[in-house]
Amino acid sequence: MIMTESYLSIDHLHKEFPRRGDRPLNVLGDLDVHVEEGALLSILGPSGCGKSTLLNIINGLDDATTGEVRLAGRKVSTRTRSDVKIGVVFQQPRLLAWRTVRNNVALPLQEMGLPKDEIDDRVRRYLALVGLAEFADYYPLQLSGGMQQRVSLARGLAIEPDLLLADEPFSALDEFSARRLRQEFVRIWAETGKTILFVTHNIREAVFLSSRLLVITDRPARTYLDLPVTVPHPRKPEDDLLFELEKSVTEDFMRMEEQVRLEKEMTR
Ligand SMILES: Nc1ncnc2c1ncn2[C@@H]1O[C@H](COP(=O)(O)OP(=O)(O)OP(=O)(O)O)[C@@H](O)[C@H]1O
């Protein structure tokens, strides 16, 4: 059998942060993840288990203590970036209040040195993709939270990343806006074919969005469950199959928390 390398390979990843006067904080413990190109992989884990730390390492903003991340065949670190273009969408929109929507989306494109025509074209296309074509000349504070988050999504997509890292992008929104944005997010994923890593602690959201779902344990994080979500798109949030899956992932999640608690007690 011919073994092909995954698009994103995370092998034996371990990360600890030094602490003054104490043992280092063990955040990621021997984490293995292999992601195929074009996947929408949700990473589900308890709060504080190291999900953002993992995204930072994949994005070349921090180094693992040991272990390796490879993207499209090249090792990633703070010193050796891969050729893969990475876009990021955060929990908060992080827009510049003094720039219009258009100029917020244009900023990273200007930093990339793209010609003005290309920038104008991309800003127009990606604002249309997130349904904000008519709001290009608004300032962020003139928009609702959900609309600001769409601008941030347009900004992340406009650089045309090969890999999009989404760090709880809908968790600060009200449920109605989050629902609409999740549906748009899946449509954009289907239209653009991007590889997406989507970090969340919302089990229903992860089940609804993903082509694959990874549950990681509390610190030190390791893979507890890795399962494909084969329910075809377009999905309805109230689909029985999704509801059944959510129930079983919730049970797995609770079992995992109990197992980690017992392990911690035994090593105390
Ligand atoms: N630069 C740092 N220096 C020291 N400790 C850090 C640093 N970054 C993160 N940590 C610690 O690592 C742990 C994991 O943090 P991280 O932000 O990755 O978790 P998370 O799973 O994304 O959390 P949440 O779901 O609440 O956003 C936390 O205990 C945090 O305090």
TrEMBL record:
At the top level, the lineage of the source is: Bacteria
Q: Does the keyword Transport apply?
A: yes
Tell me the PROSITE patterns matching this sequence. Answer: ABC_TRANSPORTER_1 (PS00211), ABC_TRANSPORTER_2 (PS50893)
Alphabetically sorted, this entry's keywords are: ATP-binding, Nucleotide-binding, Transport
Is Transport included in the keywords of this UniProt record?
yes
Gene3D superfamilies given for it?
A: P-loop containing nucleotide triphosphate hydrolases (3.40.50.300)
> Locate the ABC transporter domain: which residues?
8-243
Matches recorded under SMART domains: AAA
The name this protein goes by in its record: ABC transporter domain-containing protein
Q: What is the lineage of its organism?
A: Bacteria, Bacillati, Actinomycetota, Actinomycetes, Micrococcales
